[in-house]
Structure formats: C-alpha cells, structure tokens
Specification:
- 34% of the residues lie in helices and 22% in strands.
- The longest helix is centred in the last third of the chain and has 16 residues.
- The chain is of the alpha/beta class and 265 residues long.
- It has a six-stranded mixed β-sheet with strand order 5-6-7-3-8-9, sandwiched between helices.
Length: 265
C-alpha cells in the first residue's frame, strides 16, 4: 500500500485509495495474513477468561467480533495484537510477520492522545515506526487532509472532542500503513454524528487495503461494517460465519438470544 498523501480534499471528505487486487511475490512474502489462532486460552488468577479459541483471520474482509459483556472480545483483540500472551495455544502470523514494525495497529475505545497537536500526534507515531524525519510532516499532514482533519491539525489533541480524538487516533494508525487494524469498540462513547464520521473513516481505511478486525456492541454497525462475524460467549468462540448468514440465521441458541437482546452477560 502507498502512504496516504495530500489530495486537496474539501473539509470532511475522505478519499480512500484503490484497494490492491493482487500481491506480487515480494509483497506476499511480507504479508502478515493469514493469522492462525489455535486453541488459545488465557487465565487470570486461576480463572479461565479465554477458553480454547480457534479461528483464522484472512486478508480482504472486515471481521467483527460480537458477544455480550464479559465474553472476552477485548481480551481476544489484545491477544491477537500481541499486547498480552496466551496461557496456552498459539497465535501465528504468516511468516512470523508479527515482528514487522508498523504492520499492525490498534485503536482503543478511549484513545491515548499525547500532550501535543493533532499533527504532532501523527508525526510521533511515524517517528516510532522508523519513518525518516524529513518525511514525517508531509505524511502526517497528508493523512489528516485525506481524513478531513486538516482544520484541527494545529490544535492540542487533548482538547478535541471525543469524536475528533477518535478520528485522529484512526488517522494516526492509518499513517503507518498497517496491514491489519484492530479496533476495540471505536464508537462506544460517541454520539451518532461522531459515530458516523468514524465509520466513514474505517470504511476508507479498509478500502485502502487494510484488514479490519473490530469489536462493537452496536448491531447496526456490525451489519454495516462486517463481512464475517465471530461470536463469543463466556470466553468461548461459538460461531464464525459470513455476516449475512449470521444475522439471518444464527446457528446457536446463545447467538440467537444475543441478537434478540435477551443475552446480556
């Protein structure tokens, strides 16, 4: 993928780059995906919170992880991202690619903003990823322009609204050109207008070629932003299905109850 660069968008307009259709041999060798999760367990103080989870994440799709509170969704994202290590089982990226700096990124429910401008927040992420100093400002400003955030580039990031902070966090992640982006309930604390803006940005990031793996409690959002659904309950993966099939006819009583609003824990 090419880094997002300035395109002269009008404010609020997001212009995704064309999705790559094929990978050449070199790109395929460096590809992170597929990710293989095999029999993963995670224990805390003798309590099993993730219990024998197995699935694959493949490129070219948007995967949404659903389940009631306490199902283990956020833990599963953190395990896949490498923030925590499983108690048992294996999480394996293609060709050991998890060690590639900047190849994957994660945006949390409440993003961490540094005590600097929105632009400097993006520049800092580029610096950590090893981007040459002379290119950081150009790339950072380019991604803010592409996401319609150029107007707030010089503003202190910590005084931005919650929706603006989340959009800056997404732009910061996008600037790294990640092959995989993990999103942990990215709109849970936002109003409808801010949520719509974040969804639009997520769609643009996916359209540029980044795999999306996210959690949400918003079933409408899950329908809009998913190609496949993983459903967890009590730390176990109960379903993995194409989105249309999952929402039309879930295979387990737990998933059916969850979609009806009857399963909340």
């Amino acid at each position: 993928m090419r880094r997002p660069t300035s395109s002269g968008n009008s404010p609020g307009q997001i212009t995704p780059e064309a999705r790559p259709r094929t990978l050449d041999a070199a790109a395929a060798a460096d590809a992170l995906l597929p990710l293989h999760v095999r029999g993963v367990c995670f224990d805390v103080a003798g309590r099993r919170l993730i219990d024998g989870v197995t699935f694959d994440l493949r490129a070219g799709t948007r995967t949404v992880l659903l389940g009631p509170n306490g199902a283990g969704k956020s833990l599963m994202l953190r395990l896949c991202h490498g923030l925590i290590q499983p108690t048992a089982g294996q999480i394996e990226w293609n060709n050991g690619g998890a060690r590639q700096k900047g190849a994957q990124a994660m945006v949390f429910q409440r993003p961490v903003m540094l005590r600097r401008s929105a632009l400097a927040n993006v520049e800092y992420a580029l610096a950590v990823s090893g981007c040459p100093r002379g290119r950081r400002k150009e790339i950072a400003m380019g991604v803010l322009e592409r996401t319609g955030l150029a107007r707030i580039a010089s503003r202190p990031a910590r005084v931005l609204s919650a929706g603006e902070q989340q959009q800056v966090a997404l732009a910061r992640a996008w600037a790294l050109e990640p092959q995989v982006l993990f999103l942990d309930e990215p709109t849970s604390s936002l109003d409808p207008a801010a949520s719509a803006a974040v969804e639009k940005l997520i769609a643009a990031i996916f359209a540029s070629g980044t795999k999306i793996f996210m959690t949400t409690h918003d079933l409408g959002q899950a329908r809009r932003l998913s190609d496949e659904v993983l459903f967890m309950h009590h730390g176990r993966l109960l379903e993995c299905a194409p989105s249309e099939a999952f929402f039309a006819q879930p295979r387990t009583p737990e998933a059916a109850a969850y979609l009806q609003g009857d399963l909340t824990w």
